[in-house]
Amino acid sequence: MDSLTIRRPDDWHLHLRDGAMLTAVLPESARHFARALVMPNLVPPVVTGAEAAAYAARIRAALPPGAAFTPLMTLYLTGATDPADVAAAHAAGIVTAVKLYPAGATTNSASGVRDFDAVRPVLEAMAQAGVPLCVHGEVTDPAVDIFDREAVFLARVLEPLRRAVPGLRVVLEHVTTVEGLAYVRDGGPGIAATITAHHLAINRNAIFAGGIRPHAYCLPVAKREHHRAALVAAATSGDPRFFLGTDSAPHVDAAKEAACGCAGCFTAPLALPLVAEVFDRAGALDRLEGFVSRHGAAFYGLPPNPGTLSLRRGDPLRLPGRLATGAGPVTLFDPGFPLHWHVV
Ligand code: NCD
Ligand code: ZN
Question: Can you give 15-45 as a three-state secondary structure string?
Answer without folding.
Answer: CCCCHHHHHHHHHHHHCCCCEEEECCCCCCC
